Amino acid sequence: MGNVKHARVTLWAALLAGALSGPALADVTVFEKDGIKLDVGATAGAGLFHVGNTFFGAGVTRPNGNVDRNPTWGEGFLAPSALLTIDTGAAGTIYGGIRVVGAATIGDGDAGGFVQREEAKLDLDHAYAGWRSGKLFGSLGEDVLDLSFGRQPYTIGDGFLIADGNFEFGREGAYWLAPRNGWQPAAIARIKVDPVQVDLFRLKSDRNSGSDIIYGVNLDWKSGAEGKNVVGGSFLRIDDSAIPTRDGLRVFSVRAQGNFIPAVPDLFLAGEFVTQHNDRAGADVDARAWYGEAAYTLSSVTWTPKVGYRYSHFSGDKPGTAKSEAYDPLHYGMARGWGTWFQGEITGQYYLANSNLNVHTISAAVQPTEKLTLSALYYVFDFDRTPAGITSKHFGNELNLIADYAATENLTLSGVFGWLRPGEGGKQVFGRDKDTTLFEVIALAKF
User: Fold this and answer.
1) 262 preceded by a cis bond (ω within 30 of 0)
2) Which of 64, 158, 191, 429 is least surrounded by CB atoms within 10 angstroms?
3) 364-410 pLDDT, tens per residue?
4) Integer Cα distance of 183 and 205 in angstroms
5) What is the DSSP string of 342-361?
6) Nearest to residue 220, comparing CAs of 189, 197, 193?
7) Which domains does the chain have, with CATH numbers?
8) Measuring CA to CA, which residue among 355, 345, 344 is closest to residue 379?
């Protein structure tokens, strides 16, 4: 056992050293000849975390029976990758990629109990092949058709519904860093004729997140500079799942995101509306979620201040009805920065998922230098419907203070302070009333 623990500590030290080394380099082309190209690279991450009074002082019960109220732990990963492309000329481009992830948690285990102790595991995260049409379809544009199959990432929009096919749990380690994101496997057909792109897909999530088999179609219409204004919609059907209410679930979504008003280019608007339905016997579902967001950047002011507000709603189950009105958060992820869609570095990471929840989010950020961004996020969390035995809808208020430093083009350092004060509902849920605090330092690098 001592040798195993020593190996884990050694792996952690290696990952930390790798993530903090610099300057980091982008993917490197190691071979290129006659249309054949091989790129190799790696990503690495490391984080140190401390949470005080987790679950408002109730703590996490560890496998040995001890209650840990103030966990301190570390996470790290190293993920080498390779991409091979073969340009056939008139017949398009054949490509294939592979990515391996080694990840570890050391110390007490995380504050939510997802990784309960020191764990380390090496996994194959991506292994896929595909074909892009190149100029085969002439006037329609380049790479009109892109077909791929295998373990690969896939995200819809900003990750409100679909972002991560792998939920880090138990032996996989590195719950917060979540380095694994491949669907297992995915078949994706992308059809792109500017300004429209249509994706047809079949995805499978890992067993930690239900082993869901998802069929769907997503449509995006892009406009504005670099296509950053997006209006889209999706339809998903979960054909099979280990989670009973997901088996047969149909999901409809419409969304928009961008700077849509030419006269006010500094105004960012975003929103999404989702409905979920299932009429299978014993698993009736009628749920919905939506959010609306507005943010304004003072681009002509020193430090480029940015302020924003978002309201997000995730329906809860209505007592006394045959159907479940509880929204299923599915496979959301952090695709658009802090707070999307893990809302709160304490609440969203460890306490509550995006279901039976209404959240007000006020955000502010400044950029004192080109490399440094300082942000503040303030959340108000309320239950949509009061859980059984709970008399108050107010779960709590959380403040996150964040510093992001782009040390090099490929190395980012972040420091976060979090503070969560329980509301009456939160106190009743966990039976404790202490404020929870959080400190974390994270390094992410690409080599």
Assistant:
1) no
2) 64
3) 999 999 999 999 999 999 999 999 999 999 999 999 999 999 999 99
4) 5
5) S-IIIIIIII--SSSEEEEE
6) 197
7) 2-446 (2.40.160.100)
8) 344
